[in-house]
Structure formats: C-alpha cells, structure tokens
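User: Before I run my own analysis I want an independent prediction to cross-check against. Here's the chain; please return only the structure tokens and, at the end, one sentence I can use as a sanity check.
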Amino acid sequence: MDGGRLRGPDDMPECEPLVMASRPAASLLVWPAFWLVGLAAAVGVALGWMPPAWRPAGPAVVAAAAAVVAVLLVVRPLVAWLTRRCWLTPRRLRITVGVVRRVTHDVLLGHVQEVAHSRSWWQKVRGAGTLLLTTTAGTTIRVADLPQIERWHALVAELAWAQRDTRPASPGGSAEPTTPLAGDETLRSAT
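Assistant: Structure tokens:
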C-alpha cells in the first residue's frame, strides 16, 4: 500500500489502476514455522544431551545439520512465498515468481474464456484456492494458493467479461458475442 493506494510492480503502466494484489495465502507458512520450532527444540535437546567428549566438534556438527535443514524446510518456502506475487488490473493478471530468475506472466483478460477455481480440503480450511483461467489459445493457467479465492474469481470473471464487451469487431465484420453466459449475472452482482 502506498498512501492508502495499492502499489503494483514498477513496470506496470500508470494508466492501469490496480484492482487487487496478493501474495499466496500466508497460511502456506504454517509448516515452515512448525519446522522452525521443531528444529530449535531438536537442536536444544541434541546440545543438552551431548556427551562431554563430543563437545569440541559436536556443537558445530549439530549447528551445520540444523542450518541445512533450516534452509530446506524454512528458508526456501519463505523465500518462495515472498517472491511470488499476483496483480490484477482491468486489463491483465500479472504473476511474478522468482528471485534470481524472475519470471513474469501476463494474462490479458480479453483472452480469458473461462474462469474457475478449485479448493482442496486444506485450502478450504485456510480460505485459499487455485484460480484456473482458460485462454482463447486453449491453455489453462493455474494460480495456486490465492487467498480470498471467491473474490479473485468474481473480479477476474467480471473484468474478463468487461474486456470481451469492449473488444472491437473481428476482421470478418461480425463482433464476438457479448451476451453473458447463464449464471454470469450472479458474478456481476457479487462484486
């Protein structure tokens, strides 16, 4: 947030206001937090029960093993969570992933034909879900673990329909149908 206003990526055009932005659901960090507490307890027990004969090298071995486990089970998921972002504007859905190798994926909402979401039982408990977008090219794009999935679904569907409604006529002269599908009225009234 920047003075009460959502802030998008630096390369996002100024003419595209940001509708919604999010990281993956913060509940993805439950397991890394659990592993961190368990690892700290294990290190304490290992150092407390260590025989005096192992004292010169033992603590260093325990610390090195704990550091490796911490990187794999705590730091890696935390960095993955911190570096994955999703932005929604009236024209596009932008997904960025990565630190060293940054990948940006723009989905133009005018090319979205179907919007759906799925939720596993664990995602349901956490209030998250996976957004599924089918494009005109027939590709399905998955955006996993978005918080407030129903809101994301409704906004993306509404904005995709708005983009389709404003799309110019095709070269053959006939405009694409702009009549909403059955049930679309509920999405429009939900936002």
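Sanity check: The first helix runs from residue 30 to 48.
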